[in-house]
Fold these 2 entries.
Entry 1:
Amino acid sequence: MAPQFDAIVVGAGFGGMGAGIELDRLGLSNYVILEREDDLGGTWHVNHYPGLAVDIASVTYSYSFEPNPYWSRLFAPGRELKRYAGHVADKYGLRRRMRFGTVVDGARWDEHAQHWTVSLAGGETLTGRYLLTATGFLSQPYTPPFPGIDSFAGKILHTTAWEDDFDLTGRKAAVIGTGATAVQLVPEAAERVAELTVFQRTPIWVVPKVDTPIPAPVQQLFAKVPAAQRAARLANTSLLEAIMVVGVLHYKQAKLLNKGAAALAKAHLFAQVRDKRTREQLTPHYDFGCKRPTFSNRYFKVFNQPHVRLETNSIERIEPDGIVTADGHKTEIDTLILATGFNLWDVNFPAVEIIGRDGVDLGKWWRDNRFQAYEGITVPKFPNFLSLNSPYSYSGLSYFTTIEAQMKHMGRLFGEMFRRGEQTFEVTAAANDRFLGEVTDKLGDSVFYGGDCASARSYYFNQHGEAALLRPSSTVTTHRHAVGFPLTDYTFGAAGMKTPA
Ligand code: NAP
């Protein structure tokens, strides 16, 4: 009655691949990675809209143990990230563990057999001793229910379902949304279309992007002298860390730095946009950091072009040939681009139904009791389960800092379990409560609670108004905890059959 797998991982993005690498390191090599898409890479597989690139410099946005000396630019384009994901999967033998086009319906802890049973769409079930979900934060695309959207007669494209062969040339297009995705896409679209209207509900803080190609000699230096790239990574990561820790997490103590970032973004806007009214419309009225700021040297400039218009009236309805705003004005379009982001809090925590001990439903429990996870990774009543995209798990600006901290947490947790000769673990309720209390206290200093975020409409906040996504610690602290959390925060047990109570 042993389970089929040591572990079942859900998601073949960078998080799931990191988990797979760590499982191999721990000797739990009989695992499967289930992926709903038809290839690996997560976000970097799904997203391929024009202009896609990282906006965390590539030396930092990559695994520290698998540096890529050959990034073509400081901020690599999306296709290089996808290629890098393929390289990592091949080098670490992950691809043969992956099952694509596999949609997970749910997972249930089997208390009797002490393993997880995972149900797939189509009816198949799989069993694994451990369950790891790496389903991403931004993986459930959101389309607002605009009245009349189904009647639209032109082309609708969501940025997560871009059709590479769709030609924008000569089109009368609208982009709805002004998040990080729109900031990358709008300059590209503006170059091709005949008319472009950008529908903005909430402006975004945009700071200059210090981007440049990485010349071949520097790439060769990084390849020959890895320490040089490590130094570049350390310098960049430290800068990002300072911005995050001082400007966002310690907003109360360092308001000036936060205001300085906003001033930089305003100066950038002033330098790039001629029309005063457009500048005013593009200026956020919430504090820097309340919602994720972005980087671009091209976005603002687009609004100087005669064929581009910024529309700030709210959308009332969509008609077959256009968008009608609250002031009664109709913008005629033939192409509707939805840069409307993702639904995090209704459908993504968790992304699939997870039923733990005593029939506890994780999604319901989170909604009834506040979103929470010990160290952003484990939850009481969910034995042998690692939720890699949990509330309060995202640490630092680059997702890789979170991934690698979680790999370290796995190392310490499983190491202790093996040392004791056990096969099950579960975090204690007391440890979980303590962690939730700590993050709640620390968030009091952050821009989310100390600043003015009222008009930000930020996905950092959940439906209860809690900023429950980012972990309010420096990445150094997060990594220190990952290798040093008290082992008494977990209980361990023997696997095998349990006599039903
Ligand atoms: P987003 O930041 O959630 O932006 C969605 C946009 O759609 C917002 O401007 C939002 O307006 C608008 N919107 C949603 N519903 C609307 C409605 N009913 N009416 C009018 N407007 C509506 O999504 P995103 O731009 O896809 O970016 C999501 C995240 O992905 C980023 O924050 C970033 O973390 C990541 N990302 C990273 C990169 C990169 O690193 N290269 C690139 C792209 C994205 P409101 O603000 O008013 O809600």
Entry 2:
Amino acid sequence: MKKVHFTETVLRDANQSLIATRLPYDKFEGALETINKAGYYSAECWGGATFDSCLRYLGEDPWERLRKIKAKMPDTKLQMLLRGQNLLGYKHYPDDVVRKFVEHAVTNGMDIIRIFDALNDLRNIEVAVDETIKRGAMASIAISYTQSPVHTMEKFAQMAKDMQKMGAGSICIKDMAGVMSPAEAHDLVSAIKDSVDLPVVLHTHCTTGLAFMTILKAVEAGADIIDTAISCFSGGTSQPATETLAYALKQLGYEVDLDEKVLKEINDYFKPIRDEFLATGTLDPKVMATDTQALNYKIPGGMLSNLISQLKAQNAIDKLEEVLLETPRVREDLGYPPLVTPMSQMVGVQAATNVLVGERYKNIGKEVKAYCRGEYGKAPGEINADLMKKALGDETPVTCRYADLLEPEFDKVKATLGDVAKNDEDVLSYIAFPQVAEKFFAERKEKEERKATYTIEIMEDND
Ligand code: CO
């Protein structure tokens, strides 16, 4: 009987997709020991947004959060999402920073690091993968899924082969926009399964309503691990429900390790928390609904809402249809980048600019220029020659791995921070989110000083 493994996303992607990553540690702490004994393959608990939100909004040290989760969940593998050379952000970091970050993620408790690059340029993930393996964790390498004439099954299969050579412990198909159809999932999982001898993971979102069907067809084609969210934090822009898929797959004869009684306990724990977020408005019921627009326009839901609000702000919402027609042309001119952050913003803004200015590429965005220069990596297809000329003039684009041009940074930043940083983890938080970390360090210090005064007062009282 074929076994299907489950990765629970409530602590990361579900939290990020539904409530903008505003779930503080204290609120989910009480569920950790239960999640630990449910029978999950892994629990996703860290990524760019969780890290940022801890420092920016929740007053939490993300590293400390990771250590606390690890202590309460010794039996379930902890998992994070990493953007290769971009770590948790959108710019390229030098190799020494990437290695340090991965090292500390693993020593603080991470077991599986899912590593991807927005352009699927494997040069941008090789250092992170190498360090992950060196530190004894599993590198689950992800394909950023997209559709285009240059993204063929053969190319995806070849990518999977290259990822296996790099030392991948599993291959993840990452459908960040929830646009992968059941038929496409079936074909893609089959193609990857035929090419490599590794577990295949499917990550998708319910946004367009396809996810349950897509996962089922992926499992039928041999997918081994699926990402799901406990039911009260599932659906809409989040993952499909853990309990539902466990129930359906068991009935179809698949082996599932999850204990439904424990799943119920987890869901009972999170339900009042969900209701609280609904009551405060942090959870907008809209994001829990099905929205098929992404299928019509072939662009992710988040990108569409961004375009609409940008056009509204410019008093040009009447141009929406034109911009939506221009978007695939810009994407084609840029060599079909997957529409994931930061490419989705880049393509959307350039399409809107082309329409509003009334001439294609008269104004070219700074990011598009950097992309043409090769600073994000290699475009999946050819960049339009006219656009290249307009963007770069006589400048020659970079063809090497962009991070090869970057100087080591960690020791320099560490020296500059001095005792503001208590440890290497602080230095890494600062490198990832400088202003936010700085503010966090100052507030932390203030809290500690207040605590110290308080202790002295109590001692005096006892005298
Ligand atoms: Co996701």
